[in-house]
Design a protein that fits this description.
560 residues, alpha/beta, six-stranded mixed β-sheet, five-stranded parallel β-sheet, 23 helices, binds glucose-6-phosphate
């Protein structure tokens, strides 16, 4: 048995689970109506109501004890000191340094990383000012009006999410697009209505070797040059790079003067507040970007200072462990009631699942408990008219995070009251449901009663903030970052590597020449993969003229 399952707090939680597993939230609230007054916590401008969880004070005490036994705080402090807590890659994990105030310093491996962070932020600020003001001119002398971020994974999901979340604060005469997929459709559709003379490409790639990004970047280069008369000098005006790899950036043909750097201690999925956030800064400006960083920093401080029992990220992380490892919940739904957060669940999927989708502990031992849950979700109220049915009446337990704001950025008649009434109604309905008696009292025909019964006892967290601002977005993202950290520290896994994505990448690289070879290649895969490749090759031979590659379709179109 692994160390975690031998821990006294874990064993106590197992015993406690047997006592509490059938307790209904109706009873828990009936016997303790005050629970909504103490199962709450505030930090960094966020309010967390976790009273609609299947817990008692004893559960909370035991979970806090588990955090102490697993030394979550010690591990957190090691992260903030810059120790190499990413053991499988032997790296520091220092996204928290990206939002440290300029008057702080943090020495890591002999370098003051806070100073380096602020040097890059200042350069990003100057560049943003030049683009936003129209001072930076494209190759033909026109100001930039379109910004296309080319990146994937951590170099895409954070930037897209943040742009969408903060659109209200964005400069509206600039158009932002995000190309990530290696499917040519993504590039073509993102650029087809853009004028190359007014378009800036941001090539965002930590390594600057990622197949998807480099393929899209080369296509962008061709598109741009085709639309600008083929003069190589145009690249300097229309391409910037966000990367840690100056050598590859230079090889690609981007002047390193147009490169904004970051460091190996920033993991891809933790990089939206590094240079990878350049598109965000171009959209909202330097000052608002700083406000977003301040929101992150407030949550960092809360995570470091608040006791476990009132520490938002720790509470949320521990509750995830409670449901995943004791109740056997496999997923967690994130339900933001704000249209601007429509990409937030997709962003969180990478943050949570790439971080904690791990099967061994730090020392390589196979875990004998479940790790990272499957995160998913959609903005409310749309989800209510689709998958909420399963959460309410299905057979699976799905803990939910509801996210809402006191004030709308677009107050429109009674829209916001109606929106928020749904947040409160959904968590109430999930927790308390509807008994057969209540259904009968409504005059329901007996044979329909079972269909209309809502068992309730579906747990949820409700996270409220005043308004969606750059600052509250920063706090919200940091909340989940540190919740992920807490879960990883309990499970004893490396939340900062991602070896699981490597095998597929390597296999794809090996298959490319097999798809393209003129001669029938010697295929040595399994029989299924061999047959699929042969089938594709056959279709490729039979391509009609419409399938012929068109390297610069959009460039040609918009240059006309
Ligand atoms: C994130 C992962 C991964 C990464 C992408 C893009 O934590 O490492 O999603 O962000 O593979 O990598 P590059 O930025 O190096 O292109």
């Amino acid at each position: 048995m692994t160390e975690l399952r031998e821990r006294p707090a874990w064993k106590a939680l197992e015993a406690h689970y047997e006592e509490i597993r059938d307790a209904h939230l109706r009873e828990l609230f009936a016997t303790d109506p005050q629970r909504a007054e103490y199962f709450i916590a505030d930090g960094a401008g966020l309010h967390l109501d976790f009273s609609k969880n299947r817990i008692t004070s004893e559960t909370l005490a035991l979970l806090a004890e588990l955090a102490r036994e697993c030394e979550v705080e010690k591990r957190r402090d090691a992260m903030f000191r810059g120790e190499h807590i990413n053991v499988s890659e032997d790296r520091a994990v220092l996204h928290v340094a990206l939002r440290m105030n300029a008057n702080r310093s943090l020495n890591v491996d002999g370098v003051d990383v806070v100073k380096e962070v602020h040097d890059v932020l200042d350069r990003m600020g100057d560049f943003s000012y030049r683009i936003r003001s129209g001072d930076w001119k494209g190759h033909t002398g026109k100001p930039i009006r379109n910004v296309v971020n080319i990146g994937i994974g951590g170099s895409d999901l954070g930037p897209v999410m943040a742009y969408e979340a903060l659109r209200h604060y964005s400069q509206r005469d600039l158009t932002f697009r995000f190309v990530s997929n290696i499917d040519g459709t993504d590039f073509v559709e993102c650029t087809r209505d853009l004028d190359p003379a007014e378009t800036l490409f941001i090539v965002a790639s930590k390594t600057f070797t990622t197949l998807e990004t480099m393929t899209n970047a080369r296509t962008a280069r061709e598109w741009s040059l085709a639309g600008l008369g083929g003069d190589e000098a145009a690249v300097a005006k229309h391409f910037v790079a966000l990367s840690t790899n100056a050598e590859e950036v230079a090889k690609f043909g981007i002047d390193t003067a147009n490169m904004f750097g970051f460091w190996e201690w920033v993991g891809g999925r933790y990089s939206m507040d590094s240079a990878i956030g350049l598109s965000t800064m171009l959209a909202i400006g330097y000052v608002a970007f700083q406000e977003m960083l301040a929101g992150f920093a407030e949550m960092d401080a809360h995570f470091c200072e608040a006791p476990v029992e009132s520490n938002l990220p720790m509470l949320m992380g521990l509750l995830s462990v409670w449901y995943g490892d004791f109740f056997g919940a496999e997923t967690c739904a994130v339900l933001p009631y704000d249209q601007y957060l429509h990409r937030f669940p997709a962003y969180l999927q990478q943050l949570t699942m790439e971080s904690n989708g791990k099967h061994v502990t730090l020392d390589g031992t196979r875990v004998d408990y479940d790790t990272g849950a499957i995160y998913w979700g959609e903005p409310g109220t749309n989800g209510q008219h689709s998958f909420y049915q399963l959460i309410h009446q299905g057979t699976r337990l799905i803990p939910c995070d509801f996210i809402g704001f006191m004030h709308s950025n677009n107050p429109l008649g009674e829209h916001h009251d109606l929106l928020m009434s749904n947040v409160f109604a959904q968590s109430e309905a999930l927790a308390f449901g509807k008994t057969p008696e209540q259904v009968r009292e409504e005059g329901t025909a007996e044979e329909v009663v079972p269909h209309r019964v809502m068992e309730g006892n579906r747990p949820s967290n409700t996270i409220l903030a005043e308004r969606l601002t750059p600052e509250s977005l920063g706090s919200l993202v940091a909340l989940y970052e540190h919740s992920v950290f807490t879960q990883g520290a309990i499970w004893g896994v490396d939340s900062f590597d991602q070896w699981g994505v490597e095998l597929g990448k390597a296999l794809a690289v090996a298959i490319i020449p097999e798809l393209q070879a003129d001669e029938e290649p010697d295929l040595n895969h399994d029989s299924s993969t061999n047959a699929l490749i042969r089938r594709y090759r056959q279709a490729r031979r039979e391509r009609d003229p419409a399938d012929e590659p068109t390297p610069n379709p959009a460039g040609r179109e918009s240059a006309e």
